[in-house]
Design goal:
- Helix content is 39%, strand content 20%.
- With 589 residues, the chain is α+β, with helices and mostly antiparallel strands.
- Helix 11 packs antiparallel against helix 12 and helix 14 crosses helix 15.
- The longest helix has 54 residues.
Amino acid sequence: MNAIKKLGGVIIYGNKNCNVRMLACDKANVVPLLRREKNENEINELKIDVINTTRKSENEVQKIKCDVKNTTRNEENERNEIKHQDFAAKFDGKKWTASWNWNKEPVIDNTICEYKMNQEHERSYRKEIREWIYSGILEPYNELIMGPPKVLIPLMCVVQENKDKKVRPVGDFRALNEFVNCHTANADVCQEKMRCWRKIKNAKILDLKKAYLQIHINKKLWPYQTVIINGQRYCFTRMCFGINVAPTIMTTILRHVLNLNPTVKKACDNYIDDIFVDKSVETAKNVAKHLLKFGLQCKPPQDLEQGRVLGLRVERNKNGELIWKRDNVVQFESLNAVTRSQLFSQLGKLIGHYPVAGSLRLQASYIKRLAGNIPWCDFISEDCKKKLKELLYRVEKEDPVGGKWLVPVNGKAELYCDASSIGLGVVLLIGGVVIEDAAWLQPASDTRHINISELDSILRGINLASKWGIKELTVYSDSKSTVGWLNAVLKEEYRVKTRGISQLLVQRRLNTIKEVAKDIQIAVQWIPSEINLADRLSRIPQKWCRTVCAAGLLEQKDIWKIHSIGHFGVARTLQLCLRNNQNVSQMCF
């Protein structure tokens, strides 16, 4: 308003917001001034907008920083925490601490502290116990802090035959395992891992130092794993061998740590605490350093020809090729009295998880069947013990366990199949070398036709070949009927016609093989039994099957009863004969 007065304007009226109306003024002087004020107002408005925008940007930046911090924290939690349906594990920067879940509160009434042990092993056992107490694996139990103990775990002495008969204390967690959640549906299979590892040329082996004992246990579980040594109660602070969920915890933690580094993840594969490192992708030393950052300490790396791989001893032969063989030497102890438990243990060591075991598989299964369903602590029969001695002597003389380690990956393979009334056998060859074999004992009450058994052996052999990723498979069988059926189905030359009650069973197996042949190129050939590599796998020694002449007394009525089973009588026999020849008379009888 002052500006308007200066310019000679006459004020008519104005409101409280300083809105004025002019009656008369010098327009030439007023217009530039109004424009100047308008520009100043626009500049002020722009300044206010800039200030508001700056404040808004600062708020957005603060929000972004908070989001980044939260994201970083979440990533760190994901890196350092593992949540599983059976357990939880957390890394605090130095060590992993795990805790498992109960399916119900354990209630165990046990008063045994230690099982009896051999005196020659007791000294090593006590020494290992002292080392556990010194290193903190066993800690004195304090009831004032942790409350009353809830479970007493018995200790026993175990001798490891594969590790220079090393003596180790082991807790008997069998009673406690009934209360621990353990889902094994997604557990690794040793044979599948071995198939993958045998395809890698340049590799090294890493093994964790006392793997289970590197995992600490949450303090809330200490009252459930207490032991008494020399009258004093201790508790395990680490994860012990014997807990049913321990392999799952160890596998999950190790795999989680390996997956944190993309290069290490690509180079490594593990089975529980055994790590297989592909040297063409990453060195074993770098993998060990990566594991050490997350509290997992490894033994020095080993080459394939210097170590053990999943229980197999790998070395080089005279030609410089990598071969594998049995790691543990078969021990032939005195077999004066053998229980059913000892029998199964001995035969399990003979076969184990070896890829190639020859005729041992079927023969071992047959001896187990002969033992019967007697209690585990009862002694087996003399006949069963005799066959066991023969089998052990045959293994000592010529052990079929062993073979070539590296498997050429070319997608082609040969499969030999055979079947008998005793069992089924298959042999898989890749590059002309026996890579894997398998055998199955037929059910004792099996009455199927031999051709159905032959088809079953081929089906199981194709399933075995598919695990190696085979795309071209040549199947060899010594059954002409089976080979003819398969060629007719695969080549669609003619329709297979079968008769009898087994018709549906035959058609179902042929259709299954036809469906599998859509993904695998299958060719079937007939060979004589003499050159069929699977022939020995489906049979047992003939003297094991020989029948023994039975002696006894039969009465006349028993003889007549047996005779009458297949006797039609004179009248019915004459009637049947007259159908073919009218000249037959009763005088002929």
